[in-house]
Write a structure and sequence with these properties.
alpha+beta, 92 residues, globular, 3 helices
């Protein structure tokens, strides 16, 4: 996770070896792909807490899709726990 739009742009180029420029109107973004270490990586930025939660939800849904997990499974608990954990870590 990054804290600013410029930080997102710098981190994206460093992680994924290609630029991702945000428009002035954008308040958040997530992207995923193979990082420099060969591992699947997500980069998440949100200007405000509600935008960060929104972008994190996109990342979790994308991850669940890649893994073949239905986010509604078990009443949505796996999705909610994953999102909660990401938000906890973002606050650190």
């Amino acid at each position: 996770m990054v804290k600013t739009a410029k930080g997102y742009e710098r981190a994206h180029k460093k992680l994924f070896k290609k630029p991702d420029f945000l428009s002035c109107a954008q308040d958040g973004r997530f992207s995923g792909g193979e990082g420099n270490d060969g591992m699947w990586t997500y980069l998440i930025w949100g200007k405000e807490p509600h935008t960060l939660a929104h972008e994190m939800a996109h990342a979790v849904l994308h991850l669940f899709e890649r893994c073949g997990i239905d986010p509604r499974e078990a009443g949505g608990e796996p999705f909610c726990y994953m999102l909660s954990q990401l938000l906890l870590e973002a606050g650190s």
